[in-house]
Amino acid sequence: MRTRRFAHQTLSRGGVALIDLHTHTTCSDGTDTPRGLINAALSHGINVIALTDHDSIAGWPEAISALRGDIELVPGAEISCLTDSGISVHMLGLLFDGTNTDLLTMLEQTRDDRIPRMVKMIELLNNAGIHVSMQDIEEVMPHGATMGRPHLADALVKRGVIASRDEAFKSLLNNESEFYVAHIAPTPEAAIARIRAAGGVAVIAHPCASRRGETLQSDAFASLVAAGLSGIEVDHRDQNGDERAMLRTIALELDLAMTGSSDYHGSGKLNTLGECTTSPEQWEKLESMANARRVMRARDK
Q1: Domain 2-112+184-300 annotated CATH 3.20.20.140
Q2: pLDDT digits (tens, 9 = 90+) for 109-142
Q3: Which of 33, 189, 216, 258 keeps 20 to 30 A from 160, CA to CA?
Q4: Is 70 helix (H, G, I), strand (E, B) or coil?
């Protein structure tokens, strides 16, 4: 049984494996390098960690090279999606084949579409008397990062417009803000189809995070399941107790895996590694849906 491998790991918090399936690095909008992420995970006693940069797998090689001890790396990416009604959805693709051309093309197109979106947001802010430029954003972005709103937030912080990323998203940059601009992106169903065709599993990230703005309704999950959805990120700091309870009910009714994740961004957000985790039983269920075992360990390098 796959669960037996946890018996050979240094377990934390009462002997339970710590499994965190949603994190970011400097290859998107996090502040830790991929190597720094692995180091941080080791220091927090994490046993299994997924690297899910926005629309990018650029951090995989460095993270793999940093593996040591018994920690396991789950390769992944967080794909930015839009429903037909314009609701922003983030789909975690885990355990997929990183050489799959169709999926890599989708990630590249989604990254490219972020630039005109940022230009429009800058224009809206400037028109409102809030001065920031694309050069300001490029100066705060790590080399090779996927451009996103957190980098715009960092630029606003550097210019003294706002105090922190967190404050920026609570006021200027949330989905309900007059400065928010949606970008061209695949539908959640299209992203799920590409992930599954690449042999991976698809987990919808924080689908009811009401603190972020408009969220999915419960009846929206039927089409996602039909497309091949594998799991739901239930435990996340941006979902309250009632929202988590509703998602657990949906997951049980639809026989979907239930995950908990930190959505760690380093010092860019308040989220800390392991603050929400996935149970070994749910992780085993999720991993069994992939067409191959792609978890990486130090001894696999």
Answers
A1: yes
A2: 998 888 899 999 999 999 999 999 999 999 999 8
A3: 33
A4: coil
